[in-house]
Amino acid sequence: MSIIRITKEFSFEASHLLEGYDGACSQIHGHSYRLFVTVKGIPNPDPADPKYGMVMDFGALKKIVRSLIVDKYDHSLVVRRTPENSAFLETLKGRFDRIIETDYQPTCENMLPRFASVIASALPAGVSLVSMRLHETATSFAEYFAEDNL
């Protein structure tokens, strides 16, 4: 059988700020993120199985990515914890539920490896993560390829 890749697109709204950045992105601002997740595997060869011919059910991939990424990040504020913004973060967390505190600068480039780690570990046997593309805007995105990160 052939190895086939399938891709599912997701979207979520989130805001962030880039602590210490020397431009406009140092301010709280939001994005309409689009995340493309590509996995690969051999389509199910069993004609008696309801998943016959599928690498994996798109619904199963949707459930994984929604629960681990979309539901967590949608309508959240993502902020890197630094000594300069510790008090700010504590104030926000005292008032709002959807604050994601990170140990990294919340750029697309830094978010993708974290997303890859949790998604890859949740995939069913025989299916592996190939790549992800995260659009921050309609014309700006970062890409992650598993083969580059072995």
Rg from Cα: 18 Å
Strand content: 25-35%
Shape: elongated
Largest sheet: 6 strands, mixed
End-to-end Cα distance, whole Å, is 25 Å
Helix content: 25-40%
Mean pLDDT: 96
Q: Helical stretch count?
A: 3
Descriptive report:
The protein contains 3 helices and 6 strands. It has 150 residues and is an alpha/beta fold. A 6-stranded mixed beta sheet has the order 4-3-1-2-5-6, with helices on both faces. Helix 1 (58-73) packs across helix 3 (108-122). The mean pLDDT is 96.
Which keywords apply here?
6-stranded mixed beta sheet; 3 helices; alpha/beta; 150 residues
Topology (elements, then pairings):
Elements: E1 4-16, E2 29-41, H1 58-73, E3 76-80, H2 86-95, E4 99-102, H3 108-122, E5 128-135, E6 141-145
Parallel strand pairs: 1-3, 3-4
Antiparallel strand pairs: 1-2, 2-5, 5-6
Summarize the structure.
The protein is α/β, with parallel strands linked by helices and 150 residues long. 27% of the residues lie in helices and 32% in strands. It contains three helices and six strands, in the order E-E-H-E-H-E-H-E-E.
